[in-house]
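Bug: token stream looks shifted between consecutive jobs. Job 1:
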Amino acid sequence: MAFKKEVVEIIEPRDVFVGNPKAEVTLEEFGEYESEICAKANEIVKQLLEEYDGRIRFNFRHFPLTKIHQRSLKAGEAAVATAQEGKFWEMHNILFANRRNLGTTSLKLHSKEAGVRSKKFLDDLVNATYGWQVQGDLKEGIDRGVKDVPTFFVNGELVKKATYEDLSKAIEAALKKVKKKAPAKSAVKQRA
């Protein structure tokens, strides 16, 4: 008797967005959950999502600096685990709000607060079920030149500073580029 291996589709961090899913401008951040600077950047991102409501989408990628923040890797794994139940953004904000309290037991409590119902959450965390996804983000970040957090990209272009002003300018420039590429709508009148 042959056993059929169960294939589990994992929702990857690169596929998790907030904002308009069809927006032509993507704000992407490589960051981690223990960093004070990333927590401040998260507030800037919230402002930008409000300011550019409907015109941008945001994607958070994991870049744990484990030499200085030992719990950032597990926090990233916890966020990926919650994405499997559609609760990534709830967990994302809870993790930033509790960035000094990211032990394994705390992560389990945070997941319940985010609305996760999975009984396997703690097992997945202990067994590093989503470790490859976090490591994949880290590798991609390194390949793209990320050295520190937070690092932002707008439509793939690196933004030098993570300030509201610089990110706004980059978003405005990207929106203008998108408008120029959009085909002009012809004003053809139909005859009655």
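Job 2, same session, no restart:
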Amino acid sequence: MSYDVAIIGSGVVGLFIAYELAHYKVKVLVIDREVEPGFGVSKGHAGVIHVVQPPFNSLRSKLAVDGNKLYDGIARRLHVRIRRLSALLVARNPIQLIALPAVWLILNRVYGKRGFRVRILGPRGLRRSEPNVNGLGAVEVEGYGVINSFELVSQLYNFCRLNGVDFALSTEVTGAKVLEDEVVLVTSKGVYRTRYVINAAGLYSADVARLFGDEYRLGFGKGAMLVFWGEQTRNIVAPLQLIPNPKTKGGAIIPTVFGTTIWGPSLSIGDRGDRSVNEDDVGVLIRKFSGLLRNRASRQ
């Protein structure tokens, strides 16, 4: 079977690419080793739409800002729940409080000119904004969001199928041969020919790249999260960290579209198939976030 474009990976990135291509007269195939779309990394995150994404001059940072501004339209067209809110970096001690103006200056210089409001909250402003948060002040960055990522994956998949995109699920790419005007993909369920290949395989992207002679390695880290019934904050709340902790990915206290609260994620070394959560993972999260709240009555 021949296609114009074959996308390897049906996570949120692969599905978004297929979604865009589905608006054109292009024959598209999405291949994934899993039994359903979004079954890899895309089902294991907090659903946060970011603004701040260091390093600030990186492509990742630029794409985070550009993508952020597109989500409202996507959510409206696909009928996906999205909730806009702010992120608060909370100062817990006098040293962090003194550092707030410098943090505000940097973030405002980078993101203020891109249309995101950045401001400093004093003790009273923080209490009005977040009555349940302990802190001496905070830097607030507006424009964040949380989205129902399960709905997003499902709706992207449905849109693509209804608009002519083919899917080969439970199908692993085992070989590839680049010819003069096409690529031959050998899979566990047959051979496909395509003019272009897009590698959106996530944790397995290095494996796919090696099929084409591109040698690079990925380092794997495991992020654990705690989920609580009920909302503990109105916005995304994180402790201000002047020196990053290598055992976290940053993380925050995150209200979700489901009316629950997430703490995390943490970061620990593991292989890409590791889904376990141990006592150390939980301890890191509790130590980092428990002191931020006045009341943690929600059930875990």
